[in-house]
Amino acid sequence: MVPTLAATLGVKGHRPIVGTRDCKDLLYVLAVVNWVTAGVHANTLESSANAKKKTGLSKTRRMQEAFAAHLRHIGRMYPREKYPRVVVLIDNAPWHRGKPIDEAMRENPHLEFQRLPSYSPQLNPIERFWKKLRRRATHNRLFDTLADLKASIRASLCYFQAVRHKVKSLIEGRPKRKTSK
Residue limits of the Tc1-like transposase DDE domain (predicted)? Predict the structure, then answer.
């Protein structure tokens, strides 16, 4: 719930102030962007400061289970009958492998991973989308609750569903065109 800070405009002589809270609650967003339609499908995972105590599971295991559920969601959104091959581009995060992931992949044999090289976020098209999403949903904002943060993320995801041309230009890496008349 700590806001992300970014450069902002302000009135000359007055410093903009953004509050902070010493809160360790986190909201993870798992998303996939369809390269053809620019449709965004996302799931969230709330993680409180004492989540390990509550569940008895490590962060990696909780993330593995969330990612496995996300893969099942992708499998439902892109059924094998209509989409015989769905390629999912992923990085080498520890929660992108493991028993829960293997089980989800067995349930959805039409899903296929394409792994990116280590330490190469510039090759992952969704990283550009994350940057825009965070800028729109969290920059210079303080959220009172995790639910408020989640609502802001969800609203921004809905916005990006409505402006798919912007998502498409982000994932394809095309710069914005300036029109001059």
Answer: 59-150
| Three-class HEC string of 104-151 | HHHHCCCEEEEECCCCCHHHCHHHHHHHHHHHHHCECCCCCCHHHHHH
CA atoms within 13 A on the CB side of 41: 16
For 123, the token pair is 């090759």
4 Cβ contact list (under 8 Å, min separation 6): 134, 138, 139, 140
Cross-strand bridge partners of residue 41: 32
**What is the C-alpha to C-alpha distance for residues 176 and 128, in angstroms, rounded to an integer?**
13
Phi, psi for residue 26 in degrees, rounded to 5? -130, 155
Inter-residue contact 70 to 43 (CB < 8 Å): yes
Selected residue with higher pLDDT from 76 and 171: 76
State the Cα–Cα distance between residues 124 and 161, nearest whole angstrom. Answer: 20
Question: Which residues, at least 6 apart from 88, have a Cβ–Cβ distance to it below 8 Å?
Answer: 32, 71, 74, 111, 112, 113, 114
- The model's confidence at residue 25, banded by pLDDT at 50, 70 and 90, is confident
pTM: 0.82
What residue segments make up the domains of the chain, in order of their start? 26-171
Kindly state the average pLDDT of the residues 158-166.
94
